[in-house]
Design a protein that fits this description.
Helices cover about 65% and strands about 5% of the residues. The chain has about 240 residues and is mainly alpha-helical. It has a two-stranded antiparallel ribbon with strand order 1-2.
């Protein structure tokens, strides 16, 4: 006698739930044994005995961990721990068209916080060549007026260069993921209407601070530079 669709569905849910638990248990087991990148993980048989489940469940849990980039198969070593590409995994879900509005707004805020907070990295790692490159980027910007709003192309070019100057590969990867979301939110109407402000710090002034100022002055300058975006968030 064939099982009813309902029973089959319940069985599938139960199995999935067990695999979820086993996946978490394997990660915890690796942590307890203080295994690091390059170390071989226990064999399927040992994991099955330790966790009290079938090898089929263990195999499915390990497949998930491989897909996440946490382990990989090596000849003669079996499965070993790897250093996962965190942003490679995140990029698959960092699509502005599938994220809810609250998440989109929060990602928009993350970008603002990052650019104010990168000040010390910039001052520690910036070179005279970087200053020259920034000067070239801002050279064709229109003269700043008290009601000037920044062109999106100038924004992307200038701020992308700042991320590059930090020489932080993880930060640069994250910025590339943030850009499409930031652009989407900027034009989507999720935030309040863009305002015209009487004061701001221009890109050219930020370069002056980088060349002659200090990290604290840059933090204040960048906060002022981003004032228009904060105004759209906080109704300033």
């Amino acid at each position: 006698m064939n099982r009813s669709p309902l029973k089959a569905a319940i069985k599938a849910i139960d199995t999935s739930s067990l695999v979820d638990k086993v996946e978490d248990s394997i990660v915890e087991l690796l942590r307890e044994r203080k295994l690091s990148v390059g170390d071989a993980i226990p064999k399927e048989v040992e994991l099955a005995e330790s966790l009290g489940v079938s090898r089929t469940v263990i195999r499915e849990a390990l497949t998930r961990l491989r897909m996440m980039g946490l382990i990989e198969s090596k000849k003669k070593k079996g499965s070993v721990i790897t250093s996962p590409d965190l942003f490679g995994m995140m990029s698959k879900s960092m699509n502005p068209h599938i994220l809810d509005q609250d998440t989109l707004k929060e990602i928009f805020e993350i970008r603002l916080v990052l650019e104010i907070g990168m000040s010390d990295l910039l001052f520690h790692r910036i070179t005279p060549k970087d200053i020259e490159a920034l000067r070239a980027i801002v050279a064709d910007e229109p003269p700043a007026t008290q009601y000037h709003l920044f062109n999106i192309d100038h924004e992307v070019a200038f701020h992308s260069k700042l991320y590059e100057i930090t020489n932080n590969k993880t930060l640069k990867k994250f910025q590339k993921m943030l850009l499409p979301v930031f652009d989407y939110v900027h034009h989507s109407g999720l935030l309040k209407k863009q305002l015209l402000l009487k004061t701001f710090v221009s890109h050219k002034e930020l370069v002056d601070i980088l060349e002659h100022g200090n990290p604290e002055q840059f933090r204040v300058g960048m906060r002022n530079h981003l004032e228009n975006h904060f105004a759209r968030i906080f109704d300033l």
